[in-house]
């Protein structure tokens, strides 16, 4: 058996498994769209594999998929919290200073 086989990189049939080093933007969008917090990440991964096969692109590794799902969930939570803060300030339920407590734009550095 080859060196790759001892690392588990060769499927039992002897063929190399296809895995994407970089994720196609269509697949990233599909992962974010398919993510549902009420189902396990593994189920989302199974659905993502089907999308990758349909698009005829390499599927992501489970680890890359999991990291992307967690990042998407953090971003959704951040946006939800920002939206709630903005609404509360607009309705005069919170002071304007509450906007400074939120990280409204983490990609911008002052």
Characteristic terms for this protein:
mainly alpha; elongated; 5 helices; 110 residues; disordered N terminus
Describe the structure.
The chain is elongated and about 50 Å long. The chain has helices at residues 3-6, 25-34, 41-55, 62-90, 98-101. Helix content is 56%, strand content 0%. It has one domain (19-99). Helix 2 runs antiparallel to helix 3 (41-55). Mean pLDDT is 81; it is low at 1-11. The chain is mostly helical.
Please summarize what this structure is.
The chain is mostly helical.
Mind describing the biggest β-sheet? none
Q: What is the CA-based Rg, rounded?
A: 20 Å
Number of strands: 0
Q: What would you call the quaternary organization?
A: single chain
Unreliable segments of 5+ consecutive residues: 1-11
Number of helical stretches of at least 4 residues: 5
The secondary-structure class comes to mainly alpha
**String of helices and strands:** HHHHH
Number of domains: 1
The averaged pLDDT comes out at 81
Per the principal axes of the C-alpha atoms, what is the gross shape?
Answer: elongated
Distance between the termini: 56 Å
Share of helix, binned: 55-70%
